[in-house]
Amino acid sequence: MSAIDPRNPEIRLSEDAVPAYIFVIIAVVTLLFLGGIGWAWILYHDRAAALGGFPVPATIERAPRDISGVKQTPILYDRRGQRLREEQLRRLESFGWVDRRGGIVHIPIDDAIDWLVEEER
Questions:
Q1: Measured distance CA(23)–CA(111) in Å, rounded
Q2: For labelling alongside 107, which of 25, 41, 79, 90 has CA 20 to 30 A away?
Q3: What CA–CA distance (Å, rounded) separates 110 from 97?
């Protein structure tokens, strides 16, 4: 026979119950939070009414192109990176000298891979 007898009245499981005070604390904190939001909303409306509302400007001024010596060009209009990439791709796909005196050349990457594969055979 096992050491624990299920019919033993001395051994009991605790009830699966959450104490009520936890729900009360959560409810109070939630009400305080919602009350704070409501209070802030009322203060905002009172302040906006006292200032006559917050008007939207009819025209928006453009930002200066130079701020502290740094050019502020929108990325949409700045094509330096795209031009650099196109230049690098043209160099990868062309033949040319890296060091003419040393006899070092650059060749298109596809041709270089094909040459290495054929050299291994």
A1: 73
A2: 79
A3: 17
What value, to the nearest 5°, has the Cα angle with vertex 65 and ends 64 and 70?
Answer: 115
C-beta separation of 107 from 95 below 8 A: yes
For the chain, what percent of residues have pLDDT higher than 70? 88
Three-class SS state of 16: coil
Which two three-digit tokens encode residue 106?
Answer: 């650059």
Q: Rounded to 5 degrees, what angle do the CA atoms 39, 45, 48 make?
A: 140
**45, 46, 51, 54 alpha-carbon torsion, rounded to 10°:** 0
pLDDT (tens digit per residue) in 6-25: 676 676 666 777 888 999 99
Q: Is the pTM of this model over 0.85?
A: no
